[in-house]
Amino acid sequence: MRRDITAAAGAALATYRAPKTECDASRVVGQYKHFMRSAGSNPGTYTALQLQEFMADYVRCGFSAGELAKRNSTLRTQARREHASFPAFGSDMWRQVNEARKSLLKKDPTDVEKAVVLSMMWILRLAASFGVRTWSELNAADAGHLYVITRLLVAHSCMMRGCEQKIRWGDVLRHGASAPTVVRVNADSVTKSTRKIKRRPPRDCTLAACGAGVLTAGAAMDVFEMRFGRGRDDEFVFGVPELASGTVDSGKYLTAVTFMARVRRLSRAAGADVDGSYKFAAQGLRLGGRTDFRVYGMSAEWIRRQGGWFSDAEMGYDQPLSHHRRVEADNMAIAVRAMVAGTTTGATVAARSANQRRVAYGMAR
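Above: the chain's sequence. Below: its structure in token form.
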């Protein structure tokens, strides 16, 4: 009898977690169940293939692969509670899961197989399919379309990772009526103790201001705030849109995964692909922002500050598409014309320089 009591107590202790850990674990389990339902799989089973698909989707959304081992441990505990099977330690199934996890640790976030480049041109194409080409048309747009366009423009302009789109109204800063809008990214990162994002310091990202009716992130943010209202400082900017009522529930956050799934559906309906692909992920907006701003003349220092890079790693995010190549070719043509013009006056410049040197040494004739 005592042995049975001891075994039962040990089993209960094995599944016990502190309240904070329990809350984090519940979030992971909820994400797993939701993902499996979306994929048409049984949310009550934990096969090696299901675990691999769940891990790949997590990394595809821009989150750190370093958290995968802890997340798998959480799911193992949940399976034990549900009396469901889970790949056993040392089994072939568990080795497959571990090999997939290790490969994801080496996954290049700029790999086009993971996320295609979502440039400003693509955003404008999608907006045009909604009948939105200017600021005034955005002001009259459908609430759902306004939400999608604004979130895409802000994520592109700030070069956000998927996990960085969780901004709150208190992070949207204005320093005067004529001043540009500034978004503080990762402002509450200190509370995310279970993610790598904790080691990313907050950064202030400037949004392009509205001018001459141009569709910019700053202009879209102004319209977004006028249409849906500014929530409390602790509420989410990109909450859950209520399409029936044309409002946004700022108390709940619409995850980047769910948002990009909606964007893919809208893009397919509009035929707004990128080189024939619809492999859209939140990371693609970070790629597109980095490439666009480099091609169109922003400095490397500004790009690093806006995108939160602290090394040359941002160079890997520079992936020009065909229209970027055309802009580069045009810029090169301008540079070459300047070079040719310089060679025709080279003799005159050389003579003037030589004369200036003679003057400097008191040898002028």
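The radius of gyration is 26 Å.
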